[in-house]
Amino acid sequence: MTKQYKTTLIKIMGDEYPIKSDADPEYLRELAKYVEEKIQNISFKNKLPQRLKSEVLVAIIIADEYFAEKEKNEKIEEKMQQLLNVLEEKMIEEPSQ
Prior knowledge:
Blueprint: E1 6-12, E2 15-21, H1 25-46, H2 51-93
Antiparallel strand pairs: 1-2
Helix pairs in contact: 1-2
């Protein structure tokens, strides 16, 4: 079964981008809105005249957020594995009666 790709037109900073994806168009619009808000926030805080600088900074911020969440997820998975190991050890030590 092949995925159904559709083209969704999103707008960021007044420019339109056709995105071909199997993702929900509303989700793609949410992503575009998030990126645009980040660009506007960076542009305002740094008073950067060149849009490209803002976009690069936003890309770095988004990458940082992604890596931070990825690290949190890895720590949670490690903790879950530790707890699972403890639980398995207890089950071996105390066989069901």
